[in-house]
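Case study B.
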Amino acid sequence: MNSENPYLPLSSELVDLWFETDDRQIKSFVVELPDSKRFDYKPGQFCQLSLLGVGEAPFGIASSPDEKHLLFTVNRIGTLTSALHELEKGTEIGIRGPLGNWYPVEKMKGHSVVIVGGGYAFTTLRSLFLYIASPKRRGDYNDITIVYGAREPGLLLYRDEFDRWSKREDVSVELTIDKAYEGWTRHIGFVPAVLEKVAPSSKGAYAVVCGPPIMIKFTLPVLEKLGFPPERIYTSLEMRMKCGIGKCGRCNIGEKYICYDGPVFSFEELKGLNADF
Amino acid sequence: MKIIKTDELLNLINNLGKEMDIWAPVGDSFERVPSLKTVEIPQGTTHFSAKEIFFPKEQTLLTYKREDGNFELDSVPLPDAKGVIFGLRSCDLVAIAEMDEFFTGRTYTDVYYQKLREGMLLFGVACKQAAPTCFCNWFDPDVPVNPGVADVYLYPLENYLLATSTTERGEKMLSSFPDADEESLEKLERFKLESIASLPEKQETDGLADRIYELFDDKQFWQGTFDRCLGCGICTFVCPTCHCFDIQEEIINRVGRRYRLWDSCQFSLFTLEASGLNPRPTRFERMRQRFMDKLSYSYKEFGKYQCVGCGRCVVMCPANIDIREVIAKSCTVSRGGG
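Model:
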């Protein structure tokens, strides 16, 4: 973050990019900052990526702070994301951040963590997983479980990495797709159903849930049934944003600004809020 | 407390005007004037507040050039202005204090706001007589005679004024004037009492934030308010504490800029996401958001209501939506009920 002027983007270079899903709607972008020391972040935080002449939009950081470069995984959906998808390697892009709060990785120490994701909402969950499951921190946490699903195999993010993570003995990786698919040998069914089947222990455990609203709606009762109290279930919220620093006034849910007070909230915190949706 | 004669005050301000802009209430709003001719200002407030002097309707955040498809960021043009604003009412001074806290506090300093705000000397003028739409006393009974964040704050007595300051620079400006004598201090007390007495009967605002918060889902309560709303957003533009803005880009002749401009929670595009989802799809959610923010969220988050009782939205709303009615109505319904 530019300490003198928070609206001023840092110039960074797009060093690599690739299609993340078979429908070519989602691309990952590797971004290199000129001076990595100026960018100290935690899993769950986000950045404003900007293209001069087009605009700015917020994206969760998908890389772990241990990685050399920043990773963003972007769905092509609006003006800026379409322009990002057109970019070539070597392009300069503007970046403001890190912004917002982060997953409670300190509080989670000594506890089990269940990561539940759906569709393309695995970006900051990737950051969280890599952070807590890194060899230098793995000992700080008990069981680590991922339940992640997408409509079909080709729509899962980070497939090569999931293959590697699945081979690890110190983490459980449960992948699922909505319907049977040729060659698919893992779970079949929606994320909430698979979560119920896998039934990770809630004893002193934290759950972090990101995904489409409908998935979250059906996952919460399952977590409740498994015994997770709302103060130990976290999620990351999104709203339309402009400034990202709590000034422009549009991303509030009740009295909380998603960009400034969030984007990470526990369901205990969300329970009492006046939500417009 | 100092005594200052009318022509001395005019001299003081017009001398300042040799090195800086003079802003004063002219018609509907605060305008830049070549010199101050009178210390008389109209009863109540101008239709538009002075916020646009620190928070312009449109403001460049950064500029860049486009060469061979590449962009080059220019050095950032931070705004620079020096001025004296004469004729601020106390409700507006309360609003400015809230804007200061919002833009320059809370982790990130908005340097654009800060730069313009620091360059302005504030001359407040106590209200002799409230306007029919004034209700500042609902939030704080002393407001109409309260110096707040004014550098110099003036009480217009018969043919002279009493002046006080709350800042070092204000104190400096007043240092050469004589102290007020006992007789004028007595007049001041009468002035204050009369001013406060001219305000309407206070509505109960204790617990207002919780009361309004609990009416969130009570559509019946909001009926008769939101269904009249035209969604024009004038309430937010005239409000001295509304600070929402949009950020846009434009390129003209290969010179580009990123700029901000006033936005309003009353517009449907305000929260429309790229996916097509809009968490506030109708006038109901948008109007409710505004009242929630003014009368509840702000208090819960900052401990202050982002309504200062200036009455501008009451005067300007083409559909006669009246925030005073919302407050009064919230007092009559039972908690959580309709």
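The longest strand of chain B covers residues 58-67. The remaining cases will be described in the next quarterly update.
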